[in-house]
Amino acid sequence: MPNVFDIKRNDECICGSGKKYKKCCLPRIEEIETELIKELEKDFDINQYGKDFIRVVSVMFGFEMKEDAGEADTERIAKIISELWEENDLDLDSIQKSAEAIFQLVSSKEELKFFRIPAKVFIENDTDNFDDLFDEVLEDLSIEEYLLELASIIRTSFFTDDELKTIFNWISLGLADPWQTGFFDVLFQISLKEMGEAAEKFHQIAENESDDSSEDAFLQLEPLFEEYPIFEEFVGIKALYNFESELEYLLNNGVEFEFPFYIIYTLFLKFLSAINEVIKEDLAYLKLYCPDLIFGAADAVLQEEEVIEEVYKDILEALSETLEENKDKNEELCYVIVSTTSFFFMPLWTHIIAIEKILALSMQKYFMKLPRTVDDSQLMLDSAKQLVNREFLNNYISYLNSKGLEKEASILQKTYEEATSQDAIKEIDIEEVIDIITDEDMTFEIEL
Ligand SMILES: [Zn+2]
Predict the structure, then answer these.
(1) Which end of the chain is flanked by fewer CB atoms within 10 Å, N or C?
(2) How many angstroms separate the alpha carbon of residue 402 from the centre of ligand 1?
(3) What's the domain range around 105?
(4) What does the mean pLDDT of the chain come to?
(5) What is the pTM of this model?
(6) How far apart are the C-alpha atoms of 171 and 406, rounded to whole Å?
(7) Gap from CA of 436 to ligand 1 centroid (Å)
(8) CA proximity to 416, closest of 283, 311, 275, 265
């Protein structure tokens, strides 16, 4: 018997509050558990398996969620469980029937469309043997995480009594064996089926695509991705990894991505804030966390509409300019540029991660070549220390304003104030930070 949600009183609470279980969600969960047992004891002799099941359900309906899901209706839950237990005949026929009902519900219910095996397992485990793949998948998945996610779906959307009974049946299947094979097998089968269907449709779109209508083909991808979120995830990750090797090739072959200095400057200041929050004065760990912190900072900078538009534009411009220059000269380079450009035209969620990587590398490169003049101004950046100097900031802000870039100036100003308002930032040795960023060994590998 697996001890699913066998949480000790002093363990950290499952809801992610950081508090101890007994001081957080336990009281509410115990309350639900007691009510369910009291109700079900009237008609059933509850064995250990039944008790475990009730505990799991109580946790699922009792833990504190970020979204407001209202109070658990224990009367309704008890009624559904008792129906389930009354119907539970262990003959093959009814097991088969309930397996079909679970498969049907999980594959068709809109709210469960995103509740699948992570698509990256289909990329990382390169095998045609599905039994092997399933074993690999099982090792990495935690039923508790899955049950909490399932719980938040059930508690925030409408499920009929019958649907809920099917879900409960699925959960009890999951508790029936130590590896939760019965629970994950459903997800795995559905994920596989959807991947197969979507891949077929994807190839049809690609086949119908004639040279002059590639944009139409990209448009057709959107409904396909909407219908199969797992396939969108899969294509996104695959394309991202492919992009990463293409990017390396492009950079080695003279393609340069250049952005206005205010973007690099804002990114650096966001990064300093992040260092300050995570590492404080001790920079010993920075080498380790540097890529993560820069990706995070880039993510924050890209939330600004002006920045993301500018960055997209600059990347596509750099690609098309290099393509123009190398037409009839370097076939391989042109091929890679076209491929990278179509990556950015496809409706993929992984673009942002690709852009974060380009920004990180651009900032690194920028600081490798100091001193330099800033944009096309008279301003000279001799050392990165100037970036936390108010006089330098003010001069650059005046330059931006003189170019009519008021919004850009205010984004930078805001980020500067946020970064420098923290006392500890004065303790950070900027030169040391720059040394770490510009270290030859500092690569910005994408990890998902
Ligand atoms: Zn809690």
Answers:
(1) N
(2) 53
(3) 21-190
(4) 90
(5) 0.84
(6) 56
(7) 39
(8) 265
